[in-house]
Amino acid sequence: MPLPGQARVPDAGAEAELIRRAQAGDRAAFDGLYALTAGRIFALLLRLCADREAAERLTQDTFVMAWQRLGTFRGQSRFTSWLHRIAVNFMLQDSRSQGRREARVIAVEDGVLRAAAGHSPSTDLRLDLERAIARLPDGARTALVLHDIEGYTHEEIAAMTGIAAGTVKSQLHRARRLLQERLSP
Amino acid sequence: MNHHLDDARLNDFADDLLPGPERARAEEHLASCSACRDTLTKVRQLRSALAALPLEIAPPPDVLADVRARIAAAGSGRMVDASWYARPRMLAAAAVLLVAVTAATTTLVIRAMERPPGAAVATYGAADDRPAALVAVQAMERSYEEAIAELQRALGDQQSGLSPETLRVLQENLGVIDRAVAEARAALHADPANDVLAALLRAGYERKLDVLRSVSSHGRARS
C-alpha cells in the first residue's frame, strides 16, 4: 500500500518485537504500540467522524479491541493497516447505530485543526482543507480520507467498508469535486 | 479525441488508473485542450495538498488511561496473571522483562519521534502553550515521585523479608527503569506539549510503581 510522504515508519524489527511481547500479554509492550500508532488512528478517526468526541471514543474502542484480538494478528499486513480496519469498522458501526450526521454538524474544533495543520506558512490553507473535508457527505469523506490521505486503493477501501470499488471511486471523485468547489476563491 | 475528458476520466488519469491505449488518447487530447489541462492541474494540486496533511494527530492523554482501565476491567484472559508477583523468582525475571521493555519502548518511541523535516506529527490541544504544558508535566512528575518515595520508604522497612538475590536483581533493574524514565523525561521537557512522550513517561512511572508495589506486597506476605 503506498503511503503519503508524511508517514512515520516505525522500526519494523522493534515494532514486531513489541507486537510479539504484547501478544504474550505484556502491557508495557502494548503501551509502546499505542505510543507508536495512536496518532495515526486518532487522525484517521477525527477525519472520518468529523467529531472529536467520537474520534476519542472510537480510538479507545480500537485499542481495546486490538488488545483483545492481538493474538489473531499474523503480520500479513502492516500493523497500522490492521488497526485501521478495526477503526473503520467501529466508525461504520457507530455511524449506523447513532445516526450522528445531524448532530455532528462540524465538531472538528479549530484547536484540533490548528494542531493538525502545524505551524507552517500554509497553515491557513490546511485549516481550510480540513474544514472542507469535515463538511463532506459521509461516503465521499470516507473515500477521500482513505484514498487521498491514507493511501489505500479503491479495492482496499471496498474491502474495508463493504462498498463496491466502483462506488468508492465515484464517491472519491465527488469528494474531490466538492472540495474544489468549496476551496475555490 | 476531440471531446473533453469527463470527470471520471480526468480523475483516473490523475490517479494513473487509465489503461495504456486510453491513457494515450487522453494524453493526446490534453496536449491540445487547455481547459482539460487546467482541470487536471487542479485535481493534482488537490491531491498534493491532501497528501501533505499530517498523518498523525496525538490523542488527548486520557485516552490511553481509559484504554488501560477498560482492558483491566475486562479482565482479559490474555492479561498476565497478577499472582506471578508473589513468586520471588518470577518477580526477578519479570523485573528484567519490564526493564527491557520499558527501555526498548523509550528508545523506540524517542527514535520514532525523530522524524524527517516536514513530517509533522500534530499534538492535540495546547500545542503552542509550552509553559502550561511544562507545568502540567512537572505536576505529574511530582505526583508520581511522591507515590514512589512513599512506596520506597515502606519497602525499606520490609527488606528483611526478601532474599538477597531478589533484592539485588530488583535494585539493578529499578536502576534501568530509572534511566528509561530519565530519557523520556528529558525528551518531554524539551517538548512538553508532546502527548506521546507524556504517555511514555507516565508508562515508565507506572511500571516503577507496579514493581515497587509488588515487592512491597511480597515483603508483607513473608513477614
List the helices and strands and how they pair.
The complex is a heterodimer of chains A (185) and B (223).
Chain A: H1 12-23, H2 27-49, H3 52-69, H4 79-98, H5 101-104, H6 110-117, H7 123-134, H8 138-149, H9 154-161, H10 165-183
Chain B: H1 7-14, H2 20-32, H3 34-51, E1 56-58, H4 62-74, H5 88-113, E2 121-123, H6 130-158, H7 164-190, H8 195-222
Parallel strand pairs in B: 1-2
Helix pairs in contact in B: 1-3, 5-7, 5-8, 6-8, 7-8
Please provide a written account of the structure:
- The complex is a heterodimer of chains A (185) and B (223).
- Helices cover 74% and strands 0% of the residues of chain A.
- Chain A has helices at residues 12-23, 27-49, 52-69, 79-98, 101-104, 110-117, 123-134, 138-149, 154-161, 165-183.
- Chain B is mostly helical.
- Chain B is built from eight helices and two strands.
- The radius of gyration of chain B is 28 Å and the shape is rod-shaped.
- The model of chain B is unreliable at 76-98 and 111-128 (pLDDT under 50).
- Classes of the chains: A mainly alpha (185), B mainly alpha (223).
- Chains A and B meet through helix 1, helix 2, helix 3, helix 6 and helix 7 of A and helix 1, helix 3, strand 1, helix 4 and helix 5 of B.
**What characteristic shape of chain A results from the CA principal axes?**
elongated
Query: What's the pLDDT, averaged over the residues of chain A?
Result: 84
Give the number of DSSP strands of chain A: 0
Distance between the termini of chain A: 34 Å
Average residue-wise pLDDT of chain B: 72
Helix content of chain B: over 70%
Number of E-type strands of chain B: 2
Oligomeric description of these chains: heterodimer
Structural class of chain B: mainly alpha
Major sheet of chain B: 2 strands, parallel
Strand content of chain A: under 5%
| SSE succession of chain B | HHHEHHEHHH
Biggest interface reads:
A-B, 67 and 59 residues
Task: Give the C-alpha Rg of chain A.
Answer: 17 Å
Question: Which spans of chain B have pLDDT < 50 for at least 5 consecutive residues?
Answer: 76-98, 111-128
Cross-sheet strand order for the largest sheet of chain B: 1-2
Number of helices of chain A: 10
Radius of gyration of chain B: 28 Å
Strand content of chain B: under 5%
Number of helices of chain B: 8
Shape of chain B: rod-shaped
